Each structure stands twice: as C-alpha cells, then as structure tokens.
C-alpha cells in the first residue's frame, strides 16, 4: 500500500520538536546562541540524533527558535502601520523593534551577519524579510522628506545590526547600543523634515 505524501509528523515528533525549541530558547536566553547542540540535546533529554533530525545545524535551530519563540516582528510591523501616521516615527519605531529582535539572545548578531552574507543560511529569509520591511518604512519616510535620499533599507539593517553587535561586546556598557543607534538616526533622518 502506498503511503500518502505530505503527511503530518507524528504526534511524538511534534512534541519532541516543541520541547527542543523550548529548551533551546532557555539555553539561548541563559548562555547565548553559542550554547552547544550537545548541551541542548542533553538538557532536552533527547539523543543527539533526534536533535539533528529536527535541526541539522545550529542556524536551523536559531531560525526555528526565532520564528517560534522570538520577538514577533510581523505583529510589531502591523502595530506600527496601524498606530503611526508620521513616517519618520514609524521608521524609527521599526528600527527599534528590529534592534530588539537582533538582541533577543546574546551573540545573535553574528549569525544574522553571516546570514546576510551567505544567502543559503536558514536565517537568510528572515533577514531578507526584515530588510524588505525596513525598505518600505524608509521609502515612505523619504517620500515625506523625513529621511535622506540615497539611504537604503539594507544600510539601516546593517547599521542596526552593527549597533546591536557592538552593544553585546564585553567592553560595552548600557549606553553603547542606544548611542550608536542615535548616531545612525542622525545619519538617515533629515533635520527639517524636507530636503
């Protein structure tokens, strides 16, 4: 008898996956994204083979945790679009949300940087979606004269990523990341509202 294709995963496999994601989120929160895959498997009480069946590498696991348990950027985007009538404020609020997403776990900026460069990374689609949304908010602000022409969404994404990375450095204090984001804001925002 032929098995139907596209069948749903078994209930125990779904339960294992959800449990692994919960344990990985806890590990990322406590230790950062560099926590070993073996440590996650051990904490989850599953064999390494089970972990790797669900998530073949760390980037797959990070992408799944961000999608399942990370900050909900789509919800934030919808809130901004519903609440903000000023395109400069909307872009600024979006970049704040992106910064929080990039800092959801210690060490996350590095895999995001790699994903931007290596389009085969499991994190690359999320990065591209964030860049595309950033571009939409930016174009609206440019149209209204609140953002300088020539600035691109990818520039703001990478600038925000750089600030998030620097804010996570061992030598950084709490003022580094917001200070760098303010410098970035001064680079993209117009001073008069029209240029």
Automatic annotation (TrEMBL):
Pfam families xref list: TetR_C_43, TetR_N
| DNA-binding region(s) from the entry | 36-55
Keyword annotations? DNA-binding, Transcription, Transcription regulation
Leader peptide range in chain numbering: none
Q: HTH tetR-type domain spans which residues?
A: 14-73
| Domain of life, source organism | Bacteria
Per its UniProt record, what InterPro entries does this chain match?
Answer: Homeodomain-like_sf (IPR009057), HTH-type_TetR-like_transc_reg (IPR050109), HTH_TetR (IPR001647), TetR_SbtR-like_C (IPR049445)
Q: What is this protein called?
A: TetR family transcriptional regulator
């Amino acid at each position: 008898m032929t098995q139907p294709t596209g069948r749903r995963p078994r209930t125990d496999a779904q339960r294992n996956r959800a449990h692994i994601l919960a344990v990985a989120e806890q590990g990322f929160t406590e230790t950062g994204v560099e926590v070993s895959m073996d440590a996650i498997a051990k904490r989850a009480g599953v064999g390494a083979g089970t972990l790797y069946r669900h998530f073949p590498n760390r980037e797959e696991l990070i992408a799944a945790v961000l999608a399942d348990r990370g900050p909900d950027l789509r919800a934030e985007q919808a809130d901004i679009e519903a609440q903000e009538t000023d395109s400069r404020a909307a872009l600024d609020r979006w970049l704040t949300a992106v910064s929080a997403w990039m800092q959801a776990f210690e060490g996350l900026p590095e895999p995001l940087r790699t994903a931007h460069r290596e389009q085969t990374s499991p994190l690359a689609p999320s990065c591209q979606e964030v860049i595309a949304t950033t571009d939409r908010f930016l174009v609206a602000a440019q149209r209204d004269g609140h953002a300088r022409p020539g600035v691109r969404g990818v520039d703001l994404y990478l600038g925000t990523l750089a600030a998030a990375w620097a804010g996570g450095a061992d030598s950084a204090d709490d003022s580094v990341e917001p200070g760098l984001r303010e410098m970035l804001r001064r680079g993209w925002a117009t001073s008069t509202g029209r240029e």
